[in-house]
């Protein structure tokens, strides 16, 4: 194929960067300006470091903000997109009656808006400045947005308005399509990259039928394998730590960098979110407010302390400041008890290897690793010292702060070096302190980490004989490609029958880059892994199910995947957000 084959037809009223990428490749200069990207300049060759910050001077909230449900939505949600009332032109909600009223369940209703907050403070050393985030219960947008606490069996409609400034200039685009990573979500609610919408009629994604100001997302909260297992689903498929974020084609990196992400925590009878749960089967892990999600994002600031981003470089520059829930070098005040800490690498580029250290960074402390990505491990991994996270990976750990005296200061430290857009390179102490824990008073703690968590479904001989596909993630003409092709929102590169099983081989032929590959919709099981062609062991924390597969340099892996319950279009992409925005993505479809 040629470089122009991924061009979005001009008749859609857009010459988005997908078009300009082809042009730029041919011209070999980063002249990627559109009316929508008008203020950005040629990227600087040397990116100066961010100015100094004031550490440990702001505290995170003691508990995360829960998104409250609303009693009603006006207009009422409906199966067919309510275009007349301002909803964007999505496909009809699949299986809506069957998964709601026919089961005696009316959806819980939520309403959020993507919005600019003009006065966000990352750190007291930097001026208040504009970010993009989500509002729910609060008038001002926050980053991360409010946390949704959801439960299997209880469906949700989440209406998301786009109230971003439609005439925005600067990096990012005021269009949104919100992906809930990695819920088992019908395609039309999954935040497909071409399904973006905005307040202005021109802001219509090429895969939508009409523009709109909001879109209703139907989150059935059913277990994957609903059909396969007699309309119940398999509790081994349940997910826990999910997150929502913008997924607009070509602009996901700057939009998420501006703050458009939040958590969605999903519970069931086993992982019930209640450490007091009298159900004998409940795990009784540490629960809210001691269940605490944190998104880590790498960012860069100019000499005035204002957030900068180069959305034209296809390689990306790792940020030299790490925000934790939107703050640089914050303090989390913790009680002397167990906590479930859920870490998410929110990108855009940097990888982390996190340690819990003492004040002088001379000793490291243990914790129990209980979940990777959205999935509780079959058994907890006790006495762990580190958590390594590629972009979009998650890790849930349980830390027992009762070991430490009141007043103790501990630190979350990143020791993984990534000096430029390649790598990461090596693990090196002492590393960079990114969060301080300050240990406070003792409080009651009935939580536990039982010896068994969530059982894992073993692959059968038939699963292991499933059809295979190979996907090669590599550079092409200074951009990023999958099987030598760039992303095209219109063309599925694989079509699977609903209910089918396949083995996908993910291949990284390069020796300098890592690619955290994310496959939407269902979890996969890593069957094998090679480096430079030789088998390498799968580390214990990756032996459960996953939704992000980190391909290190010259690595490949085989992943068992199922495609169940819904139909439609979904993506697979590199979750280095800069690689993703520079075309390392495919569309794949499920058909009846
Ligand atoms: Cu990549």
Estimate the helix proportion, in percent: under 10%
Largest sheet: 8 strands, mixed
Backbone shape: globular
Instruction: Return the average pLDDT rounded to an integer.
Output: 91
Q: What is the tally of helical segments?
A: 5
Q: Bound compounds, please?
A: copper (II) ion
Unreliable sequence segments: 1-45
- Report the C-alpha radius of gyration, rounded: 22 Å
Query: Structural class, from secondary structure content?
Result: mainly beta
Descriptive tags:
592 residues, 5 helices, binds copper (II) ion
Question: What's the helix and strand layout?
Answer:
Layout: H1 17-27, H2 96-99, E1 108-120, E2 129-135, E3 145-151, E4 156-162, E5 178-181, E6 214-219, E7 241-246, H3 252-257, E8 261-267, E9 291-301, E10 307-308, E11 321-324, E12 327-328, E13 331-336, E14 338-345, E15 352-357, E16 367-372, E17 375-384, E18 387-389, E19 394-400, E20 409-416, E21 427-442, H4 461-464, E22 468-476, E23 479-482, E24 492-497, E25 500-507, E26 515-519, E27 524-531, E28 534-535, E29 545-546, E30 548-551, E31 555-563, E32 568-574, H5 577-581, E33 585-591
Parallel strand pairs: 1-4, 3-8, 9-14, 13-21, 22-25, 24-33
Antiparallel strand pairs: 1-2, 4-6, 5-7, 7-8, 9-10, 9-11, 11-12, 14-19, 15-18, 15-20, 16-17, 16-19, 20-21, 22-23, 25-31, 26-30, 26-32, 27-28, 27-29, 27-31, 32-33
Bound molecules: copper (II) ion (CU).
């Amino acid at each position: 194929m040629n470089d122009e084959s991924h061009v979005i037809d001009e008749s859609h009223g857009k010459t988005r960067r997908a078009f300009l990428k082809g042009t730029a490749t041919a011209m070999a200069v980063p002249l990627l300006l559109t009316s929508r990207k008008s203020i950005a300049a040629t990227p600087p060759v040397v990116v100066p470091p961010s100015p100094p910050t004031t550490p440990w001077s702001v505290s995170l909230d003691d508990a995360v903000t829960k998104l409250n449900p609303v009693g009603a939505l006006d207009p009422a949600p409906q199966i067919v997109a309510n275009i007349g009332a301002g909803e964007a032109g999505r496909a009809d909600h699949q299986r809506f009656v069957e998964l709601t009223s026919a089961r005696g369940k009316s959806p819980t209703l939520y309403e959020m808006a993507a919005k600019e907050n003009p006065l966000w403070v990352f750190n007291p050393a930097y001026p208040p400045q504009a970010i993009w985030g989500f509002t729910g219960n609060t008038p001002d947008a926050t980053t991360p947005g409010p946390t949704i606490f959801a439960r299997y069996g209880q469906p949700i409609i989440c209406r998301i308005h786009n109230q971003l400034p439609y005439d925005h200039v600067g990096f990012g685009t005021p269009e949104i399509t919100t992906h809930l990573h990695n819920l088992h979500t019908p395609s039309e609610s999954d935040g497909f990259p071409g399904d973006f919408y905005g307040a202005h009629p021109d802001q219509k994604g090429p895969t939508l039928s009409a523009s709109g100001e909001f879109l209703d997302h139907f989150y059935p909260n059913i277990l994957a394998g609903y059909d396969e297992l007699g309309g119940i689903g398999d509790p081994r498929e349940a997910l826990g730590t999910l997150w929502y974020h913008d997924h607009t084609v070509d602009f996901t990196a700057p939009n998420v960098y501006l703050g458009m992400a939040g958590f969605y925590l999903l519970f069931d009878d086993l992982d019930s979110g209640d450490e007091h749960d009298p159900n004998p089967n409940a795990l009784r892990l540490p629960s809210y407010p001691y269940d605490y999600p944190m998104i880590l994002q790498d960012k860069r600031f100019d000499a005035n302390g204002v957030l900068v981003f180069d959305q034209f470089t296809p390689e990306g520059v790792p940020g030299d400041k790490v925000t934790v829930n939107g703050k640089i070098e914050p303090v989390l005040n913790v009680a002397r008890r167990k906590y479930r800490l859920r870490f998410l690498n929110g990108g855009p580029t940097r990888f982390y290897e996190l340690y819990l250290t003492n004040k002088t960074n001379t000793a490291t402390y243990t914790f129990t690793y209980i979940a990777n990505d959205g999935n509780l491990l079959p058994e907890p991994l006790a006495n762990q010292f580190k958590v390594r996270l590629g972009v979009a990976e998650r890790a849930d750990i349980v830390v027992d702060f009762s070991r430490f005296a009141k007043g103790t200061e501990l630190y979350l430290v990143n020791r993984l070096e990534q000096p430029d857009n390649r790598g990461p390179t090596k693990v090196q102490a002492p590393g960079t302190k990114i969060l301080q824990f300050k240990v406070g008073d003792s409080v009651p703690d009935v939580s536990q980490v039982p010896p068994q968590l969530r059982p894992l479904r073993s692959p059968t001989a038939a699963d292991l004989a499933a059809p295979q596909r190979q996907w090669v993630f590599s550079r092409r003409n200074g951009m990023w490609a999958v099987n030598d092709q760039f992303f095209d929102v219109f063309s599925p590169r694989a079509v699977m029958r609903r209910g089918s099983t396949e083995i996908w081989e993910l291949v990284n032929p390069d020796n300098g880059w890592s690619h955290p590959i994310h496959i939407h919709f269902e979890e996969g099981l890593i069957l094998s892994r090679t480096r430079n062609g030789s088998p390498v062991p799968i580390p214990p924390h990756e032996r459960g199910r996953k939704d992000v597969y980190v391909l290190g340099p010259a690595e490949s892996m085989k992943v068992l995947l199922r495609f169940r319950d819904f139909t439609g279009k979904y993506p697979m992409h590199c979750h280095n957000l800069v690689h993703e925005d520079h075309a390392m993505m495919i569309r794949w479809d499920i058909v009846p």
